[in-house]
């Protein structure tokens, strides 16, 4: 087990601790880890086996392909670290992760994150230890580690002091219920394409209006589901 002290406490239960911190060790998240804004502990699930072959998985009840991670081994690993923090099982069957849930988690003490492998984990473990199942999208990864890295990346950047420019976080996609407006930077003209005149006008009222209308246009075009939810929230 590796531990670093800090604010938000992440404990990751995995068969591949060497995958961490991985991308979380660089840039904003890596600096925040070094500075102690959050801490990361990995727990090797295999250390909680009791048989001589150190088996973490077994064949699925009812037959079929693949292997299932054993409830008893996982329960020992979870119970070793459980302390009231939310317990999250990375799972394609889970509720899709939202920015709102990321904000809630970032405001809490941390999380215990279980990374599945093979066909997943014995259902009784999820029920008995009260795991919240979280999906990062409608596709199947080979393991929960990359999903845990995604979830932690989204959380860590919201921790106090991690993001330099707080305003940039507040206008970002999903924070307002809309996708974000497009961005441009110098030069004013590149390959015959000009930065929209309004952004060079210095008229902040007009710039805000343009950004808002672009955010609405993009959301309507690309994410009709978000657009409908946004309109419904405005009617309330
Ligand atoms: C090969 S997947 C198992 C897929 C499972 N048999 C199913 O069809 O739902 C192995 C592990 O990867 C993780 N995983 C895969 N896709 C994921 C996703 N979209 N979001 C979060 N975790 C995912 C889970 O921890 C899962 O237990």
Question: Can I get a quick summary?
Answer:
The chain is α/β, with parallel strands linked by helices.
Features:
Alpha/beta knot, tRNA processing, alpha/beta, 2 domains, five-stranded parallel β-sheet, binds S-adenosylmethionine, transferase, disordered N terminus, two-stranded antiparallel ribbon, Trp Operon Repressor, Chain A, S-adenosyl-L-methionine, tRNA_m1G_MTases_N, methyltransferase, elongated, 236 residues, 18% strand
What coarse outline follows from CA principal-axis ratios? elongated
Measured by DSSP, the beta-strand proportion falls in: 15-25%
Number of helices: 8
Which blocks of ≥5 consecutive residues have pLDDT under 50?
1-6
Textual characterization of the structure:
By secondary structure, the chain is of the alpha/beta class. It has two domains: 8-158, SPOUT methyltransferase, trefoil knot domain (Alpha/beta knot, 3-Layer(aba) Sandwich), CATH 3.40.1280.10; 171-234, tRNA(m1g37)methyltransferase, domain 2 (Trp Operon Repressor, Chain A), CATH 1.10.1270. Helix content is 35%, strand content 18%. The chain is built from eight helices and nine strands. The protein has a five-stranded parallel beta sheet with strand order 2-1-6-5-7, with helices on both faces. It has a two-stranded antiparallel sheet with strand order 3-4. The chain is elongated, with a radius of gyration of 22 Å. Residues 1-6 have low confidence and may be disordered. The structure holds S-adenosylmethionine (SAM). Residues 90-93, 115-117, 119-120, 135-137, 139-144, 147 line the site of S-adenosylmethionine (SAM).
């Amino acid at each position: 087990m590796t531990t670093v002290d800090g604010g938000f406490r992440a404990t990751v239960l995995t068969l591949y601790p060497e995958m961490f911190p991985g991308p979380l060790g660089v840039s904003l998240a890596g600096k925040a880890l070094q500075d102690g804004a959050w801490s990361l502990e990995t727990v090797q699930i295999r250390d909680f086996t009791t048989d001589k072959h150190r088996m973490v998985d077994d064949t699925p009840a009812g037959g079929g392909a693949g292997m299932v991670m054993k409830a008893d081994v996982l329960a020992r690993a979870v119970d070793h670290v459980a302390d009231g923090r939310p317990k999250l099982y990375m799972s394609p069957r889970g509720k899709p992760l939202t920015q709102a849930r990321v904000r809630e988690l970032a405001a809490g003490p941390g999380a215990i994150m279980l990374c599945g492998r093979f066909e997943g984990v014995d259902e009784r473990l999820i029920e008995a230890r009260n795991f919240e199942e979280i999906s990062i999208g409608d596709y199947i990864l080979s393991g929960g580690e990359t999903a845990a890295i995604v979830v932690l990346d989204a959380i860590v950047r919201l921790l106090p002091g991690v993001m330099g420019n707080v305003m940039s976080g507040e206008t970002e996609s999903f924070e307002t219920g809309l996708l974000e407006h497009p961005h441009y930077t110098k030069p004013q003209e590149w390959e015959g394409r000009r930065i929209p005149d309004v952004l060079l006008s210095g008229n902040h009222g007009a710039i805000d209006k343009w950004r808002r209308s672009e955010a609405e246009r993009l959301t309507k075009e690309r994410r009709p589901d978000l657009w409908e939810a946004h309109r419904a929230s405005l009617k309330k």
